[in-house]
Amino acid sequence: MQKRSITLKGHRTSIALEAEFWAALEDLAVARERSLPSLVYEIDRNRLKQDPAPGLASAIRVFILESSSSSD
Question: Start and end of every Ribbon-helix-helix domain (predicted)?
Answer without folding.
Answer: 2-66
